[in-house]
């Protein structure tokens, strides 16, 4: 049996089906979460086909019967490794959009669990905690990640800032001094601007922690690498899943620093404001 998910196989087989089976396939692709809870009679009625047609459809994909088909369909909705980004396409139902977005995110987390090296997180956290100031650098969509890091590190009481804009970034990097750290986010590790900033920061005596792809040009000019495997064609697609793991690394670094600092509740950051916010 093919290692592709059942939904992918239905899509691949679509043009070779007759009209009745195509209606079945279209409904299953659009509403997989509903189908796994439907009886064969209900599915037949919904797609205006006969029960024997449903059985032929199931056997086309190598299943003995409808229950076997539903079991495999349910398994197809569970995240699996290795990660395969399931692209949202025109015509997808809202149910498919919700399912694909959630599944891609869950798969990204699973991939992070398998790929991230705890020793790299530990080394990065130690360097950040010891820094007198942390400059946080990113460009493009990764700027959102930099702002998230700034907010969370400041809530730990760290002196840091997310530095935005090419000119401002360059001025800060050139003025880097010993005991400072440049924290750089880059999905590919090939962005020229980020590589040049890393080199400039190190020239001034700062240390560089990069969250990027292993064996990339940015990784090679960093003091500490936290390797996050990039996803294919991120320069074109930049889906949520391709950025999610960078946010996870931030949380891991923040919690590691909180643990080392003796926080009673290391996974619960204190409020940034000194007053309680009003609630209605």
UniProtKB/TrEMBL annotation:
Domain HTH rpiR-type: 4-80
Positions of the SIS domain: 124-263
MF terms (GO), sorted A to Z: carbohydrate derivative binding; DNA binding; DNA-binding transcription factor activity
Record-linked Pfam families: HTH_6, SIS
GO biological process, one term: carbohydrate derivative metabolic process
Top-level taxon of the source organism: Bacteria
PROSITE patterns noted in UniProt: HTH_RPIR (PS51071), SIS (PS51464)
Keywords: DNA-binding, Transcription, Transcription regulation
Name by which UniProt lists this protein: MurR/RpiR family transcriptional regulator
Species this chain originates from: Kaistia nematophila
């Amino acid at each position: 049996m093919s290692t592709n998910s059942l939904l992918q196989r239905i899509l691949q087989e679509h043009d070779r089906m007759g009209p009745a089976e195509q209606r079945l396939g279209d409904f299953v692709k659009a509403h997989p979460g509903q189908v796994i809870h439907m009886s064969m009679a209900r599915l037949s009625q919904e797609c205006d086909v006969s029960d024997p047609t449903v059985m032929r459809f199931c056997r086309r994909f190598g299943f003995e019967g409808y229950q076997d088909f539903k079991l495999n369909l349910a398994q197809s909705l569970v995240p699996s490794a290795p990660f395969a980004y399931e692209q949202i396409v025109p015509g997808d139902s809202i149910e498919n959009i919700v399912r694909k977005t959630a599944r891609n995110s869950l798969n990204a987390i699973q991939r992070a669990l398998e790929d991230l090296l705890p020793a790299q997180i530990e080394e990065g956290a130690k360097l950040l905690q010891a820094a007198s100031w942390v400059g946080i650098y990113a460009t493009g969509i990764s700027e959102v990640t930099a702002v998230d890091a700034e907010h969370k590190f400041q809530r730990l009481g760290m002196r840091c800032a997310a530095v935005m804009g090419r000119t401002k970034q360059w001025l800060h990097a050139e003025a880097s001094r010993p005991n400072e750290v440049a924290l750089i986010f880059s999905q590919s590790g090939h962005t020229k601007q980020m590589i040049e900033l890393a080199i400039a920061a190190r020239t001034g005596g700062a240390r560089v922690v990069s969250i990027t792809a292993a064996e990339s040009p940015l990784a090679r000019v960093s003091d500490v690498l936290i390797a996050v495997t990039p996803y294919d064609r991120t320069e074109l697609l930049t889906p949520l899943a391709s950025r999610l793991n960078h946010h996870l690394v931030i949380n891991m670094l923040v919690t590691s620093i909180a643990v080392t600092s003796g926080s009673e509740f290391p996974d619960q950051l204190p409020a940034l404001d000194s007053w309680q916010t009003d609630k209605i």
